[in-house]
Amino acid sequence: MKKIIDLALCAAICLSLVSCGTKTAETPTADTANDSSKNYVIATDKGFSPFEFQDADGNIVGIDMEILDAIAKDQGFTYDLQYIGWDAAIAACQAGQADGMIAGASITEDRKSTGWIFSDGYFDATQGMAVAADSDITGFADMKGKKMAVKNGTMSNEYAESIKNEYGFKIVTFSTSPDMYQAVMGGQVDACLDDTPILKYNIKSGELALKFVEGTENEPTRYGFAIFDKSNQELIDLFNEGLKNIRENGKYDEIIAEYLG
Hints:
Layout: E1 22-23, E2 39-44, E3 53-54, E4 60-61, H1 63-75, E5 78-83, H2 86-94, E6 100-101, H3 109-113, E7 117-125, E8 127-132, E9 147-151, H4 155-167, E10 170-174, H5 177-185, E11 191-195, H6 196-204, E12 210-213, E13 221-227, H7 233-248, H8 251-260
Parallel strand pairs: 2-5, 2-6, 9-10, 9-11
Antiparallel strand pairs: 1-5, 3-4, 7-13, 8-11, 8-12
Helix pairs in contact: 1-7, 1-8
């Protein structure tokens, strides 16, 4: 049953919870390795399709949402979803007001060193550049003296920082992907860096009047489910076991095919 949850995250952050829901797991089968009757609070990003986004009916859908739901059913636990955005999801977990987050978060050593505790990887992704549909930019070499948009605190942000001096562009940060895309389409910036599957999905679906610049991708990294408190290790264990099971029974491939073909 869907219900609205209202949680105060941090004094410095004002949030509006657009949509949250309690997911009730199906009765676990005899093959289910773990069984937890505990209810968890899971935070996620906003407007990060095809991994998490709001459909026309107001439902929160996407690859991450489908994977989380399949794992919860496989492992026999329930969860309340906070659809609150990247920065807010991290803050909620760090403040102990969410147990974990699934938001297309790349597994990196730097994040591990600052308190992120990751599950096994569930998706490999690169980052790449997109420009306005009518842009004549064909690669990073054309970005000298121009503005590159990135979402704050992401792998794309790190990627941009690592190459900005080589190619001579200025970085402009945004808190959400939709704001970043709008800035490119509106001409406030010249290009953006974001996760390749997100850009290609939204361009192909007609949601973004952008074009992807092939050959701008970096080396792939893996997305992982994350917690920030060692006392929630059981949630990582449940996620890992459930992920293993849905890979083996074909549900994982079914989810990926539904969104990415």
